[in-house]
Write a structure and sequence with these properties.
- It is a single chain.
- The longest helix is centred in the first third of the chain and has 19 residues, at 32-50.
- The strands form four sheets. Strands 1, 2, 3, 4, 5, 6, 7 and 8 form an eight-stranded mixed sheet that branches. Strands 14-13-15-16-17 form a five-stranded mixed sheet, sandwiched between helices.
- It has 16 helices and 22 strands.
- Helices cover 37% and strands 19% of the residues.
C-alpha cells in the first residue's frame, strides 16, 4: 500500500508534483531524491515487464520546456545510467514523440518530463512502452518500488544525445503531402495561411519544421519560443484566455486557419478563418468527420459531457455511431481499444479537452497529428471552394453551456460524492419533465424538457480531485439558469457534504 507521502505523486496515469520554488505555500515535492527513486522504480518495473535485466534496457528521456526540466532530466538520467541502462537523451520533445521513439528507435520504454497544462512550478513523469502509455496500476507499482527503497543493482550505463524530433516532423510533413495530393507535391500548403500558437510550450516546431517547409504562410504565429514560465498565456486549448489570444491572432493576420497546442503537444485545438473556435464539441465533430470518412458506420467514443447536438451530428449527419463514455482521456482510449477487440469498428477516441486518439495512429493522443489531419481536410475543402465552417454547419450547438465545480467537504470524498450521485439518480427519476439517460457510464445525466430548461445536466465525481463537477447545457437563452434552479432544491439538502458557493454565484 502506498503511504500518503507517495500516493500524492500519482495523478491518474502520470506522476506529478511541485518541482520549482516560487509559489507561496507550495513546497517542492519532486525533490532530487524522489525523482531518482521514481526513475529507479520505473527501471525495475520495465525490467519485469520487458522480461530482461535492467542493464539490457534502452530508455529514451525527453522533456517539455519547464524551468525544472534540466534538474529532473539530470536526476532521471543519473538513476537510469547508474543502473546500467542505455539512455537516449532526446532533449526538448513533444509527449507524442516520446511514445513514437519507442517504436522507431526500438526502445524498451521512455520517460517524458511534463505536467501538461499545469502551472509553471509543477512537473511530472510520464512513461511509455511500445504498447502505449502506462495505466494507474503500473504507476502505483513504480511508486511502490520508490516508497520501499527498491533500487536496481548498480551498473555502468550510457547516455547518447538523440534528436528524434526531426524524424517526428518528417512523419507529419509526409502525412500532409500524401493527404492533400497537391500538384506541387513538395509544397502542398503554398498559399495557405496558418497561425500557430504554441503558448511558449514545446509546440513551436509545428510552425517552423512542419508547416513552413510545405509552403504554408505562418506569419502572425505567436509564442513559438519555449519558455518554461509561460509568460503570455497558459498553453491549454481549454483555457479561455489562450483561446481568445489565438482567435485574435488569426483575425489580425487574416489567416485561413489557426492552431493551438498545450505545453507538451498531446492536445490541440483550432480556429477557423473567421476567428471562431473549433474546440470541444466542434473539434470532436471535425475529428469525427475525418475518422469516419474511411470507416462508414464506425463508432466514435467521447467522454460524458458532449452535447446532444454532437450525438445527432455524428449519427445523423456523418452516419456513424456515438458512444458517450467517461471523463478521462485514458478512459475513452481504453474503451475504444476494447470495442475494436470485440469487433466494433471504432476509429476514434476523443475527449472534450482536446485529447484525440485515432486508431490509425496507435490510439495515441497526439495534438499535432490531430491538427495535421484538420489541415489536410481544410486544404482539400479549400480546393473545392468549401471551408471547415461549411462542414460544421449541420452541428446544432447549445445556446448556453457552463460547468460548476462543487468541493466535497468530507474526508472520504469519493464515498460522499458517490452517495450524493446515487440520491440524485433516485430523485431525478421522480421529477416531472426530467429523463435520466439510459447510457450513463459515470454520474447522472438527465435531460429536461422545454418547461424545465430545454437541455441537460450531468453531475459526476472528478477523476482525481474531491470535486463534484456539474455540466449544464441548454438549447435556449436563460435555460441553464432554469436548470440550476430546478437542481437547487436537491443540492440544498446536501450543503453539509458539498460546498454550494459555485451555485450561489451562478444564480447571483
Amino acid at each position: 500500500m502506498l503511504s500518503k507521502d507517495w500516493e500524492k505523486f500519482k495523478s491518474g496515469t502520470d506522476i506529478r508534483g511541485v518541482a520549482s520554488e516560487g509559489v507561496p505555500g507550495e513546497e517542492v515535492l519532486l525533490t532530487d531524491e524522489a525523482v531518482r527513486r521514481i526513475a529507479g522504480g520505473f527501471a525495475l518495473w520495465l525490467s519485469a515487464r520487458a522480461k530482461k535485466p535492467v542493464p539490457s534496457l534502452t530508455v529514451a528521456v525527453g522533456h517539455d520546456p519547464r524551468i525544472s526540466a534540466g534538474r529532473l532530466r539530470a536526476d532521471v538520467v543519473a538513476a537510469l545510467t547508474g543502473a546500467g541502462v542505455r539512455v537516449l537523451d532526446c532533449g526538448l520533445s513533444s509527449t507524442p514523440a516520446m511514445f513514437l521513439v519507442t517504436k522507431d528507435l526500438s526502445c524498451d520504454g521512455s520517460v517524458q518530463l511534463t505536467a501538461s497544462h499545469h502551472p509553471w512550478n509543477r512537473n511530472g513523469l510520464k512513461f511509455f512502452t511500445p504498447a502505449g502509455g502506462l495505466d494507474g496500476p503500473d504507476i502505483e507499482a513504480i511508486l511502490q518500488h520508490a516508497q520501499d527503497g527498491d533500487r536496481p543493482t548498480p551498473a555502468a550505463g550510457s547516455v547518447e544525445k538523440t534528436d528524434y524530433m526531426p524524424r517526428y516532423c518528417a512523419r507529419l510533413r509526409e502525412l500532409i503531402q500524401k493527404g492533400v495530393k497537391a500538384a506541387d507535391y513538395g509544397r502542398p500548403l503554398r498559399g495557405f495561411h496558418i497561425v500557430v500558437d504554441a503558448g511558449n510550450g514545446a509546440g513551436g516546431f509545428y510552425a517552423t519544421d512542419v508547416l513552413a517547409p510545405l509552403g504554408a504562410d505562418t506569419s502572425g504565429s505567436q509564442f513559438l519560443e519555449p519558455d518554461g514560465r509561460f509568460p503570455n498565456h497558459i498553453p491549454n486549448p481549454e483555457n479561455e484566455a489562450a483561446m481568445r489570444s489565438v482567435c485574435a491572432a488569426v483575425v489580425r493576420a487574416k489567416a485561413d486557419l489557426g492552431v493551438i497546442f498545450d505545453t507538451d503537444v498531446d492536445r490541440g485545438g483550432a480556429v477557423d478563418g473567421k476567428g471562431d473556435e473549433i474546440n470541444r464539441n466542434r473539434l470532436i465533430a471535425i475529428a469525427s468527420a475525418i475518422a469516419l470518412e474511411n470507416c462508414p458506420g464506425g463508432t466514435v467514443v467521447t467522454d460524458s459531457v458532449t452535447s446532444t447536438g454532437l450525438k445527432d451530428y455524428i449519427e445523423k449527419t456523418l452516419g456513424g455511431r456515438h458512444r458517450r463514455f467517461k471523463r478521462g482521456y485514458r478512459n475513452v482510449i481504453r474503451e475504444a481499444v476494447r470495442l475494436n477487440r470485440e469487433g466494433v469498428n471504432c476509429p476514434l477516441a476523443i475527449e472534450t479537452s482536446g485529447h484525440a486518439a485515432m486508431r490509425e495512429n496507435y490510439f495515441l493522443d497526439d495534438g499535432a497529428y490531430l491538427v495535421t489531419k484538420i489541415i489536410i481536410l481544410a486544404a482539400r475543402l479549400r480546393g473545392s471552394g468549401n471551408t471547415l465552417e461549411d462542414l460544421l454547419r449541420p452541428l446544432k450547438e447549445p445556446a448556453e453551456a457552463l460547468e460548476l465545480r462543487f468541493p466535497i467537504r468530507a474526508e472520504d470524498f469519493r464515498a460522499a460524492g458517490e452517495a450524493v450521485i446515487a440520491r440524485l439518480a433516485e430523485y431525478a427519476a421522480k421529477q416531472e419533465g426530467w429523463s435520466v439517460a439510459p447510457d450513463n457510464f459515470e454520474g447522472v445525466r438527465v435531460s429536461l424538457d422545454g418547461a424545465h430548461g430545454a437541455g441537460w445536466f450531468l453531475l459526476r465525481l472528478s477523476v482525481h480531485d474531491p470535486i463534484l463537477p456539474l455540466n449544464v447545457e441548454s438549447d435556449r437563452p436563460g435555460g441553464a439558469r432554469t436548470i440550476l434552479k430546478e437542481l437547487s432544491g436537491f443540492l440544498g439538502r446536501h450543503a453539509d457534504v458539498i460546498d454550494l458557493a459555485p451555485l450561489r454565484r451562478a444564480l447571483g
